[in-house]
Amino acid sequence: HSKECGRGTFSYFDEKMNAKAAERLVMHSRLRQALGRDEFSLVYQPQVNMRTGRIFGAEALLRWTPRDGEPVGPSRFIPVAEESGLILPIGEWVIHEAFRQARRWRDAGLSMQVSINVSGLQIYRSDLIATLAAAQRDTGVPPRMIEVELTESTLVEDVHAAHEVLDALKRAGYGLAIDDFGTGYSSLAYLKRFPLNKLKIDRSFVTDVCSNAEDRAIARAIIQIARSLNLRVVAEGVETVEQAALLRRHGCHEGQGYLFGRPMAAQDLDGLLEARASGTGPALAPG
Ligand code: C2E
Ligand code: MG
Ligand code: MG
Ligand code: MG
Question: Domain EAL, which positions (predicted)?
Answer without folding.
Answer: 24-277
